[in-house]
Amino acid sequence: MTDPVFTGGERAPTGVEVAAWIRQRIRRGSFAPGQRLIEVDIIRQTGASRFKVREAFQRLEGEGLVETEEFRGASVRSASIDEVRQIYRARIALEGICAADFTRKASAEQIAKLERLQDELDACVTENAPERFGRLNLEWHALLVEGAENDVIRQLLERLNVPIHRLLFESFYSPNRLKHANADHHRILRAIKAGDADGAEAAMRAHVGNGFSTLSNISDEFFG
């Protein structure tokens, strides 16, 4: 959705759509941890009703992305380094399983799509395009989860990823990090193409663990 979400005679957005609009801006860093979410501003930008904006806040609070306080309203929830550590420990296990299951179950078309995404990621490293790399990286990981065909893990990962998305478009994707993350991707992809499920799982677990090591070295300003 763009700003405003709906204009003219078009229908007003639903609570689900407003939640998606806010969620995307948190992921991009437009709404920072601790920042208040002003109802009237969101109404103006999206064309939604006050009721739908509040419904969106409730949805995002349920995801752990927004917190609501009496007399202060809604704000973007901050994630502590301890919470991020727990998130990454869970992701290491879950995404490792997905990499192994993708290796066993993925179609030739899905593997070809993964290779095409990898070519685009390679270009991002060459061109030093961190924001585009971040978007493609999400697609790359999402494709593995899709190919693993495990809806329970998919839903868990959607919840686990949300609190740290802002970091993915900040210092997390420095030029050096891009190269290391991309090298990890190539190791995972090689294992997948070789049909080595155990190798793909081990490479993915190392990749996610490397991501946490990077986050651990980022300034405390990112954490609550």
UniProtKB/TrEMBL annotation:
Source organism, top-level taxon: Bacteria
Record GO terms (molecular function): DNA binding; DNA-binding transcription factor activity
PROSITE patterns: HTH_GNTR
Record key words, sorted: DNA-binding, Transcription, Transcription regulation
Pfam families: FCD, GntR
InterPro entries: GntR_C, TF_FadR/GntR_C, Tscrpt_reg_HTH_GntR, WH-like_DNA-bd_sf, WH_DNA-bd_sf
Positions in coiled-coil regions: none
Domain HTH gntR-type: 12-79
PANTHER family the UniProt entry points to: TRANSCRIPTIONAL REGULATOR, GNTR FAMILY, TRANSCRIPTIONAL REGULATORY PROTEIN
Record protein name field: Transcriptional regulator
Taxonomic source organism: Novosphingobium arvoryzae
